Amino acid sequence: MISKTSHIRPINGVNIYYETYTSNPHKPTMVLLHGFLSSSFSYRRLVPLLCSEFQVIVIDLPPFGQSENSLTFLYSYDNLAKTVVTLIEELKLKDVVLVGHSMGGQIALNVAKQKPEIVSKLILLCSSGYLQRAHYGLIMSSYVPFFHLWVKTWLARKGVTGNLQNVVFDHQLIDDEMIKGYTQPFLDDTIFMALTKMIRDREGDLSSCDLKKIEHPSLLVWGEEDRVVPLQVGKRLQKDLKKSTLISFAKTGHLLPEEKPEIVSNHMLEFLFG
């Protein structure tokens, strides 16, 4: 039987929400990191398929999900990775399999760069890569009073359903549960203030030079219809990550954990144990 526990823990000056799923405490640990504008909710279909072989920990990266929408936290990828590292160390975890979707993939890569000894393998699902820092003009505009309302308007221009249609290939998968799950974290306007700060804090993604120094065995999984992080990014990551394997699925978009959980979990387990 799988035991689920929810936690809120102060880490690196911010309250972090995370969930643990355990069927056997002696199993190795897998830590899952979600993407931009997402949360632990995005892994709800994938987690049950992994719990037979792993203790699974799913983290809400601030300011998303149920983690704190702090207006003082430094929302750089380096600091988000530091927060994940600190949580892993406080939980006394070793040889963690680190999984990251989209933005979470870039955070996972930063963790591997910062503390390579705590990570055994990396699994990157449609990971972001090679993005530059926000344009100087946008960063300066973010200091304008009430800029967060522009952020809210910009994110809401297509609505939650429209945004989901952009990241999911088969629109029939979009149901009321999915719409509610991706809407809930954005009902508090504080998150838009935090996202405004994230525009200022976020540095660029890791460079090719940095990526080539990461030597962990890595599995890259992609949707061939991904319109957010195209497959070409995965092919470039494969070249830069020394020990990486890339697989892709036809008729699949960006939201892999939602769209193909069974197939993805099978490839993950084959990569880890095959």
UniProtKB/TrEMBL annotation:
Cited SUPFAM superfamilies: alpha/beta-Hydrolases
Domain AB hydrolase-1: 28-261
Transmembrane segments: none
One Pfam family in the UniProt entry: Abhydrolase_1
Xref: InterPro entries: AB_hydrolase_1, AB_hydrolase_fold, Epox_hydrolase-like
PANTHER family: ALPHA/BETA-HYDROLASES SUPERFAMILY PROTEIN (PTHR46438), LIPASE-RELATED (PTHR46438:SF11)
The name this protein goes by in its record: Pimeloyl-ACP methyl ester carboxylesterase
Organism: Priestia iocasae
Organismal lineage: Bacteria, Bacillati, Bacillota, Bacilli, Bacillales
